[in-house]
Amino acid sequence: KLSVFKDQKWLDSVAAMLRKAGLPETPPLPLPDKPSIAVLPFVNMSGDPKQEYFSDGITEEIITALSKTPKLFVIARNSTFTYKNKPTKVQQVGRELGVKYVLEGSVRKAGNKVRITAQLVDAQTGNHLWAERYDRDLKDIFAVQDEITKKIITALQVKLTEGEQARVYARGTNKLEAYLKLLKGRQQMNRFNKEGNALARQTIEQAIALDPQYPVAYYLLAMTHYRDVLLRSANNPKRSIAKSLELVQKAIALDNTLAEAHGFLGHLFGVTK
User: Is pLDDT of 151 > 90?
Assistant: First the structure.
């Protein structure tokens, strides 16, 4: 028996030696056969923790936009947000998530002004492929997000058809206040507790009141009703699931390209069989 491998102290010492030597503790994941990218959580530079929803929201919007093209392999939010508020090297991210490129950045929101910095890095070499700083009015946030997405796609030498371009740059709303409410509601949802879910529903309903044609808002509202069931806060689980079905179908009726809504609808059909 090789009992030495069961000795945690020994394993820890080996890991420490590997780190000291600059060697990875685990082998890197194989790269996909198409350009692959992880978008790390943008850092909130405002100094106000209440603005965290905005920097997180910008990150999620960029992930969503990039995910709309099948020509890119994009790491999901749940994986990249594990690096939030942690000192991380892009080479480590690339190795652990199995991607060639990493996008990182920061957001500073003050009143009606916003500064966004973004840089695209080759995770294998550490070289910068593209970097930019945007100082804009808050009302121009949609244009900034579109520009960042375009710059990434161009830097990765991905060619989009007209239909793919339309999907990538479809944002769902042009109303800034509705958009900000959605970002806030999504952050509240991400707490994944009863209080956060209740707050999220109120906030997302406010977004819909500001823009009744906002597809993503209906999808997220549907999610809050389903999470009532998961969190055991639903008075009538069957009614909550039925409401969730109604809302996600509304989202798809408004935007049939909303992939996450289609996925959620399939899940709901599965649990209602």
Answer: yes
Pairwise CA distance, residues 161 & 154, whole Å: 13
Q: How many CB atoms lie within 10 A of CB 201?
A: 20
What is d(CA 129, CA 201) in angstroms, rounded to the nearest whole number?
Answer: 40
Tell me which amino acid residue 138 is.
Answer: L
Mean pLDDT for the stretch of residues 74-84: 94
Provide the b/e sequence for 77-89 (b: ≥16 CB within 10 Å): beebbebeeeeee
Contact of 239 with 200, CB cutoff 8 Å: no
The Cα 117–Cα 132 span in angstroms is 6
The pLDDT value given to residue 257: 83
Return the domain boundaries, the chain: 36-168, 176-271
Strand partners, 101: 37, 122
- Angstrom distance (rounded) from CA 101 to CA 125: 10
- The CATH code for residues 176-271 is 1.25.40.10
Residue 39, both tokens: 């978008």
**Phi, psi (5° rounding) for residue 198?**
-65, -45
Neighbours of 113 (CB within 10 A): 11
Question: Is the full-model pTM beyond 0.90?
Answer: no
What secondary structure letter does DSSP report for 129? E
Q: Using CB atoms within 10 A of its CB, is residue 152 exposed (0-12), middle (13-18) or buried (19+)?
A: buried
CATH class of 36-168: alpha beta
pLDDT digits (tens, 9 = 90+) for 179-197: 999 999 999 999 999 999 9
Separation CA 251–CA 150 (nearest Å): 26
**How many residues does the structure list for the chain?**
273
